[in-house]
Write a structure and sequence with these properties.
CATH class of the largest domain in chain A: Mainly Alpha
Distance between the termini of chain A: 18 Å
CATH architecture of the largest domain in chain A: Orthogonal Bundle
Strand order of the largest sheet of chain B: 6-7-8-3-9-10
Low-confidence stretches of chain A: 5-13
Number of helices of chain A: 12
CATH superfamily of chain B: P-loop containing nucleotide triphosphate hydrolases
Helix content of chain B: 25-40%
Low-confidence stretches of chain B: none
Oligomer: heterodimer
Order of helices and strands of chain A: HHHHHHHHHHHH
Distance between the termini of chain B: 34 Å
Shape of chain B: globular
Largest sheet of chain B: 6 strands, mixed
Shape of chain A: flat
CATH class of chain B: Alpha Beta
Largest sheet of chain A: none
Order of helices and strands of chain B: EEEHEEEHHHEHEHEEHH
Number of domains of chain B: 1
Strand content of chain B: 25-35%
Radius of gyration of chain A: 23 Å
Radius of gyration of chain B: 19 Å
CATH architecture of chain B: 3-Layer(aba) Sandwich
């Protein structure tokens, strides 16, 4: 709702700028909200038993300790490496698979059921099995991230292909475009916004997958830091990776949104969304 | 040259409604000819098969019986000898106006500088020289349809097939587009077969009108209006216009063929 109101303000700005007071910029309101939030947390957090809660300044100290001892960097490295590999694999396999299933009736009938099932089922249930197969290290994290990111990417690509307007394909046909040209020059660009939406959906799931894998294995990575400090009742330290994970997910979401606007700019323009 | 002939063309669809298969006879032995350089309007109530006839002529739908020929040669599927203008322009939204026109030319195998020059030439013809870099969503409905016309004309087809090309436009834009189509026709001499449900449009633009009903050709009528028709406002005021319009109206609304 705020978004809509804000867009309208911007649209009408030239007419009303003279007569009306300029509203506060959005980032200032956001910043003020964060400052208030942190202050409240600091004030009330100090009254809570440090086993059950923590507060910003204590978390900052814990953060600094993790930085100095180098624990944070090795944990980040151990988390990000399998995360990026699993996620990249999910894109590399999910997109072509989705195109295939969406584009060919036989592929849809033969494979669609697995994709739907894989998307619907709680893949967390598979983690113990994957640990049995792949051990507690790098491979199992890659596998969990891959599996949880694959299905949303694949299913979105598939839906995207199905949603390509029939008339656009007929445009290709009426100009005697061969099937593979229609696929590359009409179906793929028309599907791009769906693919990007799938990739964006998958990033949240992939972060969750990474943490879950590390909770189960508890040997390395940010997830292990959370579990280990929780076991030591070191709540302040536990918050550090939590906050880092949050920032990471937000950052990745933003990055993908940025790429989305670069790859499929017409989509945002058609929808009349802000391009900032 | 560009002569399109429908010879006993039939088209049956099967529809499954509540586990019952219904057969729809969309076209029933349709025969008529569009002569070289002529504009023919296909008109009739919705569901009469006029759009199906056009799609069969384009090669987008196969005929169940009979055949369509272009300059005596039977068509099999789509071909560069026919250019299609879609009802809602159907431009590719990720391409600019120019690139949309170039798309059709590329499919015909044109490459290099000729590709761009030809596309620009046809955008110029439809009056869009200055908007060639705009994407479809930055164009008005009329401009989109001009790009659609340019895209179809650019491949230099023998026949232009138009499916209610101005049906989605507002009345004023429609009128200016009709005049522009006549102008383009005067300059290119293309054979045009167009589908419309607008009586005025059919009479204003066409040389002959094919009235369809229930998948059959009800009547083929000549339009006794001279070419060129530079001012359609004046044409509208002529007795010939009113008379023809009435005759077509009768043909559409009467079940029995009109006697005149």
């Amino acid at each position: 709702m705020v978004d809509i109101a804000d867009t309208q303000n911007k649209a009408s700005a030239p007419d009303t700028a003279v007569s009306e007071r300029r509203p506060l910029p959005r980032w200032m309101i956001t910043l003020a909200s964060i400052v208030v939030m942190l202050t409240l947390w600091e004030v009330f957090g100090r009254r809570i038993n440090p086993v059950f809660g923590s507060y910003p300044s204590a978390i900052a100290v814990a953060f600094w300790e993790l930085v100095v001892t180098g624990q944070l960097w090795s944990a980040l490295y151990d988390s990000l490496r399998p995360f990026l590999l699993g996620y990249a694999l999910a894109i590399l396999i999910g997109v072509p698979l989705g195109l295939l299933i969406g584009g060919f009736r036989v592929a849809e009938a033969a494979l669609g059921v697995y994709i739907t099932a894989g998307y619907a089922m709680p893949l967390v249930a598979l983690v113990p099995l994957l640990i049995l197969w792949l051990g507690l290290g790098f491979a199992v994290k890659v596998a969990v991230v891959f599996l949880m990111a694959l299905f949303p990417i694949c299913i979105n690509t598939w839906l995207g292909v199905v949603a390509v307007p029939k008339t656009l394909i007929e445009v290709g046909k009426s100009f005697v475009a061969p099937d593979f040209v229609i696929l590359r020059r009409i179906v793929l660009p028309a599907t791009l916004p769906y693919i990007m939406a799938g990739i964006r959906l998958a990033v949240g799931r992939a972060v969750v997958a990474m943490v879950i894998a590390e909770f189960f294995t508890t040997i390395s990575g940010l997830g292990a830091v959370i579990i280990n400090s929780a076991n030591n009742f070191d709540t302040a330290t536990m918050f550090v990776p939590i906050i880092i994970l949050m920032l990471m997910a937000v950052g990745l979401n933003w990055l993908i949104g940025f790429v989305e606007r670069r790859v499929a700019p017409w989509q945002a323009e058609i929808a009349g969304r802000d391009r900032e | 040259m560009g002569e399109v002939t429908f010879l006993e063309v039939s088209k049956r669809f099967s529809l499954r409604v509540d586990n019952e298969v219904h057969h729809v006879q969309a076209l029933d032995r349709v025969s008529f000819t569009v002569r070289d350089g002529e504009i023919v309007a296909l008109i009739g109530p919705s569901g009469c098969g006029k759009t199906t006839a056009l799609r069969v002529a384009m090669g987008l739908d196969p005929a169940s019986g009979g055949r369509v020929t272009v300059d005596g040669r039977e068509i099999h599927g789509c071909g560069h000898d026919r250019g299609m203008v879609f009802q809602h322009a159907e431009l590719l939204p990720w391409l600019s106006a120019l690139q949309n026109v170039m798309f059709g030319l590329e499919m015909k195998g044109m490459r290099g500088t000729a590709l761009r020059e030809t596309a620009e030439k046809y955008l110029h013809l439809v009056g869009l020289k200055d908007s060639q870099n705009r994407r479809p969503h930055q164009l008005s409905g009329g401009m989109k349809q001009r790009v659609g016309i340019a895209r179809a004309l650019a491949i230099d087809p023998k026949v232009l097939l138009m499916d209610e090309p101005f049906g989605a436009l507002d009345a004023q834009t429609r009128e200016s587009m009709q005049a522009e189509l006549l102008d383009i026709h005067a300059r290119t001499g293309k054979t045009i077969l167009f589908v419309t449900h607008d009586l005025d449009e059919a009479v204003l633009i066409a040389d002959r009108i094919v009235v369809m009903k229930n998948g059959r050709v009800q009547e083929v009528m000549n339009v006794p209006l001279k070419r060129p028709r530079p001012d359609l406002g004046i044409v509208r005021g002529t007795p010939e216009f009113a008379e023809t319009r009435y005759k077509v109206w009768r043909a559409i609304h009467d079940d029995a063929p009109t006697v005149h």
